[in-house]
Design goal:
This protein is of the alpha/beta class. The chain contains 8 helices and 8 strands, in the order ααβββββαβββααααα. The strands form 2 sheets. The protein has a 6-stranded mixed β-sheet, with helices on both faces. A two-stranded antiparallel sheet has the order 2-3.
Length: 315
């Protein structure tokens, strides 16, 4: 039995301890596609404070620096949240500001790299592309500034079997995606000492009782988070369905009023019809708006527009 790498405990075991630095170095190099290998890494405090007491702080999962002065932030994001990209840029601002020197300073900065490992899918990217490396570019697509780099791994999109993994990064992603469901170490990964060491530290049975207790609590928190996210999604879908049913009923009621007005032939029928038709049009507009909101909600969860429309029609 192997631990879940998406728990705080599991992620730290694989990449966040001193003995894990060779694995972390390899993983960062693969994910960022660095042309020059990292000479060495040193962990820094994951908690970054603002310049004033009333400013927000940032707490990273892993924060380290290389021998050449480069800074690396590694974040494990377990659930989708609003403005995630903005949050990532905000986090990147702390290691940039920390490089400011007092006195005579020429504004030279060392590179900052932010690596996000995502247990969800972006809604505004290609459905098949799971690896993104982002830099500041000009209108011609040329890199304008190469000292700020973001990389994202959408592991929820990674579906390759081990036999189809053709790169070191793909094998890392396979391990992270499937580790907790493995019963033994795959033969294809036993030849690499980095993967071999990863399986050794992730072996639940080899841990002390105290470590197992800490891991069990971390896994419980992870499961609670997943259940909260899933429940929120289900509640959102149920709420939209209720609104659609109510809007549909209001439209039916208004159509009955229209038909009754025609049948009664009252003197003020024209006025009533105009008012009723206006109400009917407003209700239909609200119903259409509700459907569009439902489509957007489903697309935010990762579905395409066509899939979202199909699900709403089916439900």
């Amino acid at each position: 039995m192997f631990i879940n790498p998406f728990t705080d405990f599991g992620f730290k075991k694989l990449f966040g301890e001193e003995s894990a630095l060779p694995r972390l170095k390899s993983f960062i190099e693969d994910a960022l596609g660095l042309a020059i290998p990292i000479e060495s890494l040193r962990f820094l405090s994951p908690e970054q404070l603002g310049s004033r007491d009333d400013e927000r702080r940032a707490v990273y999962d892993i924060y380290c620096t290389a021998a050449d002065g480069s800074h690396f932030i590694v974040e494990l994001q377990k659930a989708k949240q609003h403005f995630f990209k903005d949050r990532t840029v905000f986090y990147a601002s702390f290691p940039i500001r920390s490089q400011a020197l007092r006195g005579n300073w020429d504004y030279r900065l060392y590179p900052v790299y932010c690596l996000g490992i995502l247990d969800f899918e972006f809604t505004d990217t290609d459905k098949l592309r799971w690896h993104h490396v982002v830099q500041l570019k000009d209108q011609e697509g040329d890199v304008f500034y190469d000292k700020l780099t973001f990389a994202f791994l959408e592991l929820a999109k990674f579906k390759k079997p081990l036999e189809a993994c053709s790169s070191h990064l793909e094998r890392w992603c396979y391990l992270l995606r499937n580790l907790q469901n493995m019963d033994s170490v795959p033969e294809l990964l036993t030849q690499d000492p980095l993967f071999k060491s990863a399986f050794e530290v992730a072996n639940y049975s080899a841990m002390s009782v105290a470590e197992q207790r800490v891991y069990n609590e971390a896994e419980k928190r992870y499961r609670d988070l997943v259940n909260v996210v899933n429940t929120a999604y289900d509640d959102g879908v149920a709420s939209v369905k209720t609104q659609l049913i109510e809007a549909e009923q209001r439209c039916r009621d208004l159509e009955i009023v229209v038909n009754t007005a025609y049948d009664d032939g009252v003197a003020s029928v024209k006025t009533q019809l105009i008012e009723v038709e206006q109400q009917l049009q407003a209700e239909r507009h609200r119903a259409e708006s509700t459907v569009q909101n439902a489509i957007k909600a489903l697309m935010a969860s990762g579905k395409t527009e066509a899939e979202a429309k199909k699900q709403i029609l089916r439900e």
